[in-house]
Description:
By secondary structure, chain A is mainly β. Chain A has strands at residues 4-7, 10-13, 19-25, 31-38, 42-51, 54-57, 64-66, 76-78, 87-94, 102-103, 107-111. Chain B is an all-beta fold and 111 residues long.
Amino acid sequence: xxxxxxxxxxxFRKEGQNVTLSCEQNLxxxxxxxxxxxxxxxxxxxYYSQIVNDFQKGDIAEGYSVSREKKESFPLTVTSAQKNPTxxxxxxxxxxxxxxxxFGAGTRLSVL
Amino acid sequence: xxxxxxxxxxLSVFKxxxxxxxxxxxxxxxxxxxxxxxxxxxxxxxxxxxISRESIKGFTADLNKGETxxxxxxxxxQEEDSAMYYCALSGRGSGYSTLTFGKGTMLxxxx
Lengths: 112, 111
C-alpha cells in the first residue's frame, strides 16, 4: 500500500474560503488525476495532468484549480466558486504507456 | 460522447449464489474496459481489464462489442466479495489517458 498519499484525510471549509487538497506520489508516475466521488454519482473527473506544467480540465472543472510544478505532486484547490464542495475527493496516478490508474485513500471535504 | 451505465445500484445475494454485475457502454470506436473495486475502508483498486482476459478472485468479464457490454461474473459469491464495484471505460478520444466511470453497484453477499 502507499505510493499515493492524500492529505488531509478530513477537511472542513468555511463559507467563501479556498482550501487545498494535497496529493503526492512516489511511484514515478507521469499522469495524475483528481476525481470527485458523490453517493450515487460514481467518480467524475475534475482535472488531470499528463506531464509537469501541463494539465487539462475534466468533466466538472468549474470551481476547482490545480497546478503541476513537480512530477510527484498535484494539489487541488477548491475555490469559493465551487458552491457544492462537500464530497469525497480521490487522487490517482498512472505510468505513461500503462493504462492502469492507482488511487489514493481520499480526502473527505465538508462545509461548515 | 462516451458513457458507462451500471443499471443496478445494489445487488444483494446469498453466499454461494452466482453473481452478475451489469455494465453497458456507449462509445464509437474500440474502448478499453475495466472493473474497479472499493472494499470497505480500502482504496479503489483495479479488479480486472478486458485486454488481460484473466480471472481475478474468481471474477471474469467478457467484452461483448455487439451488445456493448462488459458484465462482471462470478459463479459462487463469497462474503468477502461485498464491496462497491465500478465499471470504467478508456477511449481513443483521450488517447486512452482518462477513464469514464459508471455510477457503481454495491454488492452485498449475505451468509
